[in-house]
Amino acid sequence: MMADLLIRNARPFGGPPVDLFIRDGRFVAVTEARSAIEVDAAGQIALPGLVEAHTHLDKTLVGMDWFENRVGPSRSDRILADRKAKRELGIDARRQSARQIMQTLPYGVLNIRSHVDVDTEIGLANIEGVLQTREALRDLVDVQVVAFPQSGMLQRHGTLELMEAALRAGADIVGGIDPASIERDPVRHLDVIFALADRHGKPVDIHLHEPGDLGAFCLELILERVRALSLQGRVMVSHGYCLGMVDPARQHALIEALAAERIAVMTVGSPSAPALPLRLMRESGLVVASGSDGIQGTWEPWGNGDMLERAKFLAQRNGMTNDADLAETARICSFGGAEGIGLDDYGTAEGCFGDLVLVPARTLAEAVAQTPQKRTVIRRGRVLVRNGEPTGDLPAIE
Amino acid sequence: MMADLLIRNARPFGGPPVDLFIRDGRFVAVTEARSAIEVDAAGQIALPGLVEAHTHLDKTLVGMDWFENRVGPSRSDRILADRKAKRELGIDARRQSARQIMQTLPYGVLNIRSHVDVDTEIGLANIEGVLQTREALRDLVDVQVVAFPQSGMLQRHGTLELMEAALRAGADIVGGIDPASIERDPVRHLDVIFALADRHGKPVDIHLHEPGDLGAFCLELILERVRALSLQGRVMVSHGYCLGMVDPARQHALIEALAAERIAVMTVGSPSAPALPLRLMRESGLVVASGSDGIQGTWEPWGNGDMLERAKFLAQRNGMTNDADLAETARICSFGGAEGIGLDDYGTAEGCFGDLVLVPARTLAEAVAQTPQKRTVIRRGRVLVRNGEPTGDLPAIE
């Protein structure tokens, strides 16, 4: 039997200090402890486990040789370079996914949705590697696996069958990719992935970089399919740049329609991509999640996977500096992500899973703006990281 | 007599390893040491002292209570809030400027141009405070002081006389601010500040946030005055958002004209402001510098003043991920800044000042992308910071 955990003097989302009590892996009302371990939070800011709603665990080069990036600027240059690098660098998806997870754990990232490449060159190797890591690290973090046709599905025969196999092997979600600019046939691509999701009873997560009115048209096609298949609450649109590009009237109409069908939108707030209207999206009731996208890979050389820093980036991209706005971006990187990827029992209320990140900051806004590193990370009532230092319980990885 | 300093196995800008020798505060050919102190750089990347070409040393709240930001979104909301905060929070420009300088020293920031407020409420207090800090810390860092009419000059009678007094007190540069949107009279504002610069033989540095064609018109007015007064190489335009907003033909023409008159442009690469076309600007021969702008103040709650991280932000804002592009942004934050603010004898060539930052990274691109923290900082041949730890030589500050 695990000891109870009593966290004293923590401030959830920067609110008044409270004591939090975790028994059998869940928050419960503070009660007589059996043999309680105590953590003095000393007034630190408490957040439920941070949610990484969009990354690529199979693509990171963390811990490998420096990759000299000579890649051209277009998305297809990058997809080609990515596939070439996978071959030449021997990126081991099992090892690399474990490295990324262990790197982001001390930040308090306890829930991860990862897109994982499926294509006719690598087959299911990356899916299998990430699934092995998920199993090996299941006591530390929850991982959702999206079967992701990075190189296209209609474009590369055999990929659809591999997608099917990935779902049978344990992938949780059907991924899609730019139905027009990459797949060259938006209707057919969307028909194929929605049929796959319907057949397997799985959610959908679509990379949609399509710009402006082309992107808006693709969103309309997605909306039609969500309505037809009653997939409300089961679909996420990742990036959705078009929402930051179309005229205000169309922008408003699309956001309202997405909210009505409970389609979540994931944005990383990239400084070089169109900014999504975060405030309007949240006010419209749209579920907004965020993610790091790839970190330290062939696409981009930077990134650390800290979802509290991501909240800062979202604010910066949107020109938000107000404390209240920073609290909103922190919500996107926690509750927004949780709702977007469909987590149950998330939060610090009684009955929720006993996951917590303590951040040494005076206010929630300071936590976002300064992203202090010496955090304490608790999962299911077990202290995994204390003041930035992993506890002895953590497994060694390669 | 100071001991010579021999730095072995350093890689300037990521090039082949060399030994560097500093005697009497300057790089000289490697020669017989008198009593040389040796630093083993172990193949680290070497950069000359990083150049902060645009900050506000008198505005940072580093080390003070958390400022709850409830400020509205417009620039005039922020100027008002800034002036109110100065009164109510008692921001001591001498103390705060010292704190910021000491915070950024371990990053290797050895040259700083700071705008310092001059207005009818605070008078010369901030100028005097920053000048005191400059004197107190002169053995650590070079500081240039811009007399900056943050609240307007035409708009607030008496400011011009204070600007004159600031220059007599030791300010080095005449500052200007949005001649149209804040000063409401672009021609008269520019005439006044250029006359001031001409009368005192000082350079000019103008905050120009004016958008689109309004900003382009202001740039034309600046160009006319630089030609008329032969101020080539003596004027910097800070921000210059309009360069990222006008149509390509006008953009090209303006960039060529600025390059021809040797007017430098400073950009911070803010994620929420228009992106300047860095590649085109550099290819046109325009001098491009960068800066942190205010850090941890009433305007923005974040920022650490690391000019190597700033190189990363510039790349990110411009969608650059290539190693060669990252090297370019590192140049902007070193040589670009040095040329932009008019530093003499800058660099690692023989005869230059013996200033150096050693960064533990495998390549220059990795240094930019990952911004390692355990740097070694050398100024005029003296080791100030070793592997991220200040040496005993550094003065204590409040």
Automatic annotation (TrEMBL), chains A, B:
The organism's place on the tree of life at top rank: Bacteria
Gene3D superfamilies xref list: Metal-dependent hydrolases, Urease, subunit C, domain 1
Sections of the chain in a coiled coil: none
A UniProt-annotated Pfam family: Amidohydro_3
Amidohydrolase domain: residues covered: 38-384
NCBIfam families recorded: PRK05985.1
PANTHER family assigned: BLL3847 PROTEIN, CYTOSINE DEAMINASE
UniProt-recorded name of the protein: Amidohydrolase family protein
Protein source organism: Mycoplana ramosa
